[in-house]
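Apologies for my clumsy wording, but can you show me some protein sequence, whichever is easiest, together with the matching structure tokens, please?
=====
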Amino acid sequence: MAAHQKVYGDYPVYYKNPIRWARYHAHTKPHFVFAVFFAVSAPVLLLLTPLRRKFLYDDHTPLPYVYPLPNRPRDKNLSGYDD
């Protein structure tokens, strides 16, 4: 590979420059960096959910799946599309 075809400098060695190695991969392969970030943040979010329920606010009331029917007998005198 020629010098003008390099994406982001030379490939750094992890044991010598770990910060530079992380920056290199953040620039050249951001999808891997985001995948690692989400994987690390998942246990943190699992631990924060019970704390949110306890200290901040409860879960929302579930939305109804059907229209609530009236609690009365049906009117027998209706005709057509009135009901």
In short: The mean pLDDT is 81. Residues 12 and 59 are 47 Å apart (CA to CA).
